[in-house]
Amino acid sequence: MTYDALLEELRALRAELETLRSDEPREALRRSEANLRNAQRIAHIGSWDWNLETGALEWSDENYRIFRMRPGSAMDYELFLDFVHPEDREKLEQTVARAFRTQEPFQLDYRIIAKGGDVRHLSGQGEVEFDADNRPVRLSGTAQDRTEQRQIEATLADYQDHPSSWSRSAPPSCSSPSRSFAKPTASRLSARSRRASHTRSTTRSP
Q1: CATH superfamily ID and name for 45-163
Q2: Residue 151 CA to chain centroid, in angstroms?
Q3: Where are the domains of the chain?
Q4: I need a labelling partner for 184 at 20 to 30 A (CA). Which of 18, 66, 131, 198 fits?
C-alpha cells in the first residue's frame, strides 16, 4: 500500500471516529480507536492535532513512539520544535507559515533528534482549518517515520557507487559462490573419471 493510500485510510478512520463519538455506542467507538492505533503502528504513521485557539497539541500514541516518548507526555508546539533537527527547523517553520498564508495543505521531509539522541527521518503532511471568518483555528496532520527506508536507500546507493569495496568486504563464500562450489564439483568429476578409466582398462584386460 502506498503512502498516499495509507493516509487516505487514516483520514477515513479519523472521520469515522468523529461520527462515532456523537452517534454510536461506546463499544463501537473503542473498536474504531483500536483500529486507528493499529493502522498507525503498522504504517509507522503518527497523527497530531494543534488547536490554535487553546494552544493544545494532541499526539497519537504512534507519534509519541516515533519521537521515543511515553504516550500522553506533555507536548506543545515549542517542545515539538526542540525535537526538530537544527538544520531543518527553519525549513519546517517556513513551510507551516506558507500553509497559513496560502491556505493550502503542505508536505515536507525533515529530521528530528528523538529522545535518546537518535536521528529519525520523517515525512510530514498537514493542513490548516479556517473558520467562517477565515481565521485559522486548527492545524492537523501526520508524520511517517521513514528512517529504515532511508537507511536501505543509502546502503543501495553506496553499493551502486562502490561495488568493488562490497566485494572485498564480503566473506569468500558470499563474494564468489561459484568458485567455492567449483572445487568439490571438480573433485567429484575427477574421481568419476578415474573410476571410468579403471573400468575400461579392466574390461579390456584378458
Answers
A1: PAS domain (3.30.450.20)
A2: 10
A3: 1-43, 45-163
A4: 198
pLDDT in tens, 136-164: 999 999 999 999 888 888 788 877 777 76
Q: Is the predicted pLDDT of residue 132 greater than 60, yes or no?
A: yes
Q: CA 136 to CA 100: how far, in whole Å?
A: 7
Give the angle 84-76-151 at the CA atoms, nearest 5°.
30
Q: How far apart are CA 124 and CA 88, in angstroms?
A: 13
Compute the distance between CA of residue 20 and CA of residue 33 in angstroms, rounded to an integer: 10
Contacts with 162 (C-beta within 8 Å, 6 or more apart), sequence order: none
3-state secondary structure the chain: CCHHHHHHHHHHHHHHHHHHHHHCCHHHHHHHHHHHHHHHHHHCEEEEEEECCCCCEEECHHHHHHCCCCCCCCCCHHHHHHHECHHHHHHHHHHHHHHHHHCCCEEEEEEEECCCCCEEEEEEEEEEEECCCCCEEEEEEEEEECHHHHHHHHHHHHHHHCHHHHHHHCCHHHHCHHHHHHHHHHHHHHHHHHHHHHHHHHHHCC
**For residue 188, which amino acid is it?**
R
In sequence order, the 6+-apart residues with CB closer than 8 A to the CB of 134 are none
Amino acid at 172: P
